[in-house]
Amino acid sequence: MTTEQGERTTSPTSPASPASPMAAIDDGYRSFLQRAHVDRTTGRMLVLTVLTFTVFAALNPQVFLNPLNLQNIAVASPEIGVLAIAMMLAMLTGGIDLSLVAIANLSAITISTTYTAIASGNPSLAESLTPVLVLEGVLVGLVAGAVNGVLVSRAGITPILATLGTMQVFNGIAVAWTGGSTLYGLPKSLANMGMATVAGVPVLFVIFLLVAGAMGLFVARTPAGLRTQLQGANPVAAKFSGIDSASVLMRTYMVAGTLGGLAGVLFVTRNPIASADYGASYVLLIIVIAVLGGTNPSGGFATVAGVVLATLTLQILASGFTAMRLSAYEYAIAQGVILILVMITDQMRLRRRRRRRQAGPDKVAPQTTDKTLTSGR
Amino acid sequence: MSSVSTTQITGTSLELLRRLRGPNNEGALALILVGLVIVTSIANPAFFTVPTMFSVLRNSIVPLIFALGVLVVIISGGIDVSFPAIASFAAYSTVRAAQEFFDPGLIGAFAFALGLGALLGLVNGIVIARFRLPTLIVTLGSQGVFIGVLLTYVGSEYVAQLPGSLASLSKTNLLEVSSGGRGAFLPVMVIPAILLSVLVTWLLRRTMFGRGVYAIGGDVEAARRAGFPVVRIQLLIYVLVGMMAATAGVIFTIMGRSASPRDLVGIELDIIAAVVLGGASIFGGRGSVLGTLLGVLIVQVIGSSLILAGVPSAWQRAAVGFLLLVGVGVQAVAARRSARHRRVVRTEEVVA
């Protein structure tokens, strides 16, 4: 316990590392975090979210602080956030799911095609079947996730390759099905829901928070969630602790797929179109969000709160870029740079911690405290 | 006594089979390729003609050069998805630079592109080797950066007119055969593809660098303790991939007779699928140039036979994905079975 605290207080300003912006932020808000009992990554994320918001609000307040802009952020975040949470789940087990965006599009296309087919005969029936259509979209995600699950857990294919393959298969099916065109037929009630607000907060955002809450409870509070974490932290140890890895992986990819299907529903709710190549840039984006939100890509650690905050940060960044009249390509550059910087920072911190542990806490702790004191704070 | 001799005979025939199969199932792949060609030719006689064969070869040139680079990464236990971005970056920047300033000639153009490719590869290599980060995620990020920088700062317009030195090569053919009224031609760009295959084979099999690549792919820690300069080798690997990608990009531009920064986006899966189908293990430590060549040809043959069969091109993406899944699935199941087999043998030994 004492070593744990020693690490926590000394690591950010350890002389071994160049002063990175993340470390500086960690440093400044450490005391606040300790008081708030928020865990470290989530805390860092919260600070980053507020910081990003403040910077863009200061740079261009008229455009950025416009209620319409804020509402746009809240409406655009849910679909990306749900996908990022799904990605986080796959990464929690040490895997990855590259097929999520393809699953979401497949779900959106299924909803649209079914609606159009029913509406051509009986428009009011199609409209009244909206809940069934939503369920259908989610179900498509579940089935697609089950395909991934079987490939990863039963056939034993590496998740990267399995989902790279299924991404292509799902996407191919979507392209062939739509003939590459955009579909417009969608129930009006969904579009209305996309525009509705509860006390000024868009319904879509409320749905996002509910999903995030449920997944947060699942990961942190249920035995199944704990097993998922253990599987990612150390597959061998998990196996010898009697955890059925195959069924944990199967369930993870099924849940991820279901979330992908739900994201498809959110796609068509926000924007009443469905097409095979919607959100092509989301694959990189959701990985950036998951990693920025504190998910360890090699498994074992992730928090939903961190991912939710990372989603908001990236959306704020996107809308800030738009407000500053920067292009989508510049946003892509920012995403790539953020992803690599965050991973480097995390890796440096992990290494420092490991080195200190190897050197023995008793010898090193006072020394580092010393340097911390002299580092001029 | 007799039982011993039969086991010996089955032993030698097994040995022969094993040698035919090759260390990475090259024999099996060759069989699949021949089988595919035969089946497609029977189904559609138009397939077994010189023009179609040449077209398969022609379409294999660029994927093969990409695949050779990716092969080296995969053998080392990594995965790279940024190579199409590097290729676009290098080729498109070269064309634009030649337009803006002066035509540097063929050698100059290649040198410029190779330099850019090496530089971008070095960026990947530094991040991956220095910080030991997951290669897929790093290259996914760097790919976004490369494409973003290319489209923002270099340009995004389609260039229809290549600089003279490159354009002159576009129509140079190594071999021209006219058969049945249709001309069949094999562009001169086959030569660099063959040369590079030989070069990578030599690198992998005859140099210390090659040994190091296999060693790192087998077990990084073991390679380190055996004295391989792991960081330096990894840096070299990504620089090499960058240069291969740049070469492929320029050749793609020459053969396509135009330059666009978006043409190669999305090609990565086809290439990775071909390399993995070619027997390279995604966990590293295994793979060969011959297998990769066969993998590339199989993907191309399947592609062109689907076209001949009248399958819409939209399904081809799904077909390649499916192919990848089957290829990797077979590998995974075989690996699991051999692991189980080994375990059984070991327990038997213990019992004995």
Describe the secondary-structure layout.
The complex is a heterodimer of chains A (377) and B (352).
Chain A: H1 2-10, H2 21-36, H3 40-59, H4 61-64, H5 67-92, H6 100-121, H7 123-128, H8 130-154, H9 159-178, H10 188-195, E1 197-198, E2 201-202, H11 203-221, H12 223-233, H13 235-240, H14 245-270, H15 282-292, H16 304-323, H17 328-359, H18 361-374
Antiparallel strand pairs in A: 1-2
Helix pairs in contact in A: 1-18, 2-3, 3-16, 5-11, 5-14, 5-15, 5-16, 6-8, 6-9, 6-14, 8-9, 8-14, 10-14, 11-12, 12-14, 15-16, 15-17, 16-17, 17-18
Chain B: H1 2-21, H2 26-43, H3 50-75, H4 83-100, H5 105-131, H6 135-154, H7 164-170, E1 173-179, E2 182-187, H8 190-206, H9 208-218, H10 220-225, H11 230-256, H12 268-277, H13 289-308, H14 314-351
Antiparallel strand pairs in B: 1-2
Mean pLDDT of chain B: 84
Rounded to the nearest angstrom, the distance between the terminal CA atoms of chain A is 25 Å
Overall 3D shape of chain A: globular
- CATH fold title of chain B: ABC transporter involved in vitamin B12 uptake, BtuC
| Mean of all residue-level pLDDT scores of chain A | 81
DSSP strand tally of chain B: 2
CATH-defined fold name of the largest domain in chain A:
ABC transporter involved in vitamin B12 uptake, BtuC
* Biggest chain pair interface: A-B, 44 and 44 residues
Radius of gyration of chain A: 22 Å
Q: What is the number of domains of chain A? A: 2
Rg value of chain B: 22 Å
Which overall shape of chain B is indicated by the principal axes computed on the Cα atoms? Answer: globular
Structural domains of chain B: how many? 1
- Determine and state the CATH class of the largest domain in chain A: Mainly Alpha
